[in-house]
Amino acid sequence: MSTTLPTSAAPTNPPPAISDASQLDAALEHLTSDASVLRWSETEAEERSGYQAPTDEGAGERMIMNMGPQHPSTHGVLRLVLELDGEVITRSKPVIGYLHTGMEKTGEDLTYVQGATNVTRMDYASPLFTELAFSMATEQLLGIEVPERAQWIRMLMCEMNRLSSHMLFMATNGMDLGAVSMMLYGWREREEILRFFEMVTGLRMNHNYIRPGGVAADLPPGWADEVRRVLDPLPARLEEFDTLMTGQPIWRERLQGVGVITAEECLALGTTGPILRSTGFAWDLRRDMPYLRYDDVDFDVCVGTYGDCFDRYAIRLAEIGESIRIVRQILDKMPAGDYRIQDKKVTPPPRARIDESMEALIHHFKIFTEGFKVPAGETYAAVESPRGELGVYIVSDGSGKPYRMHVRGPSFVNLQTLPHLMKDSLIADTVAIVSSVDPIMGEVDR
Amino acid sequence: MSDVAEDATEVVAEPEPLLIHGHPATDDGDVVVVFPAKAELLALATQLRTDGYWQCLDLCAVDFLTHPTRPVIPESVTPERFEIVVLLINHSARTRLRIRVQIGEDDLTCPTLFRLHPGTEAMEREVYDLFGIAFDGHPDMTRILLPDDWEGHPLRKDYAIGRIPVQFKNSIAQG
């Protein structure tokens, strides 16, 4: 695959391209001003929609327009309130909440066993990552270490999920920009990966596969062949993507220099993931604060240079290549052993034991009705999801349910970059910009 | 740049209470938690920012109404019903740091971090929406997830979940 992106050097290198906090201050002034963000309430935005007469302060004629929540390229139900000067966006505001179902509140009423079922529905394009973060937080509170094989299975599943999530991005990004055939190609590759997920977890999405204590089931026979079957055609397909998009003049014209952001602005706005890396700031939790067994595999952190839509596209394309590299290594290194911790308090007994042992039956019943008790405390666990730092903060009161479960959704935070990215760009570029941020509204609204 | 996490482990070996920039703190070996008074939150965050904690990753709240004993807290800090939990990250030292601010029920306000970390805008709106804690100096203190005319703040512990009990009286299996 011919990627033009520079990749960072050895993991020991300091990640930041910024040396001290004073460099960040310059970005603060315009980020905290009203220059690019409309700060109106929902009702206010409704009342003021339409034509705006010139103001005394010198602002000319403006038009307030709603884009979404039903617009096909808003990735679900994102609504953008745009203030327009002709065809140019002066200020904007993302309006969210259309998918809010109170999942954090629901999480307080579900046991830790049931919790994974709930959180997996947040980021529906990369459900395994939320399950992983939730399970890691629970395990930190329990003070348990999951077996070696479970760690590697988790890594395998998450990297496959990163592939499927980035393939979804390739598909929708292509379609949003008019490369409709890309939609079919991206969807085709994703479908193959989902087929692998179905084989392992029984479900194509919302797997509830990674659970506190390990994973729900061992990998089925023939899993490695299936992974190879999925991976083998990918390098050639990525070449096709390259031909279809990367080198194509229309594609470049449409993306290069559009929606530019700097590393300083990203840090100030809390932005993580591909958007932060597109600015040249090499920060990837897998390398910089490793979890699971990412220490034992080789991969590069892909960074961009200009922080524009093209870099964000190219980073994701390059990350697909890196994920394939990681999965290939996992195939070689997958250890034998338990797929979940052999701790009767956390893990239900095997099905065969239930038939012969009363205690096993009681344990099974207890775990699935009351759940297991988790020592009181608070903890935060974070993973590098395809969209950035995905963290779960849990406060436990010592009972079988989390006292408070908060999810730090990368899409939710990254969405705040939109007004700054869209400032002074054309309406037509909105679609390119929203698409390059790659928000998943299920996680934004939770 | 000073490394707060390392300083912390040195001090914690002694019986004296741990202080970070003059604020009581705890260190469980994994993460340092600082407990500033509400009025000093912004000053502390500013100091930590020069220490290398450039990015505010997360800001949320916890309602300790039914769990007053709560996770470990230094003796000098008076526990209140609500806590604002802020998570900062230091990219050079590769450490995270947590700030927990006590918010009393009688004064449901907290100074905003928006001027220092503009990324907290949406997170503070979320806390306002779901807990009813208003942030002083925030440019857009409106609801973010729920409709403007929603009543109550759902993530509070005294906000009922409104569950409908499920009964299986007329199920086919029993009939």
Description:
The complex is a heterodimer of chains A (446) and B (175). Chain A has 446 residues and is an alpha+beta fold. Chain A has two domains: 74 residues, no CATH class; 343 residues, Cytochrome-c3 Hydrogenase, chain B, CATH 1.10.645. Chain A contains 20 helices and nine strands. In chain A, the strands form three sheets. Chain A has a four-stranded antiparallel sheet. In chain A, strand 3 and strand 4 form a beta hairpin. In chain A, helix 14 packs parallel to helix 19. The N terminus of chain A is likely disordered. By secondary structure, chain B is of the alpha/beta class. Chain B has a domain of 109 residues: 2-Layer Sandwich (Beta Polymerase, domain 2). Helix content of chain B is 18%, strand content 25%. Chain B is built from three helices and eight strands, in the order H-E-E-E-H-E-E-E-E-H-E. In chain B, the strands form two sheets. In chain B, strands 1-2-3-6-5-4 form a six-stranded mixed sheet. Chain B has a two-stranded parallel ribbon with strand order 7-8. The longest helix of chain B has 12 residues. The radius of gyration of chain B is 20 Å and the shape is globular. Chains A and B meet through helix 1, helix 11, strand 7, strand 8 and strand 9 of A and strand 4 and helix 3 of B.
- Measured by DSSP, the beta-strand proportion of chain A falls in 5-15%
If you average the pLDDT of chain A, what whole number results?
86
> First CA to last CA of chain A: what distance?
37 Å
CATH overall fold name of the domain at 4-112 in chain B: Beta Polymerase, domain 2
CATH superfamily of the domain at 4-112 in chain B: NADH:ubiquinone oxidoreductase Nqo5 subunit
- The percent range for helix content of chain B is 10-25%
C-alpha Rg of chain B (nearest Å): 20 Å
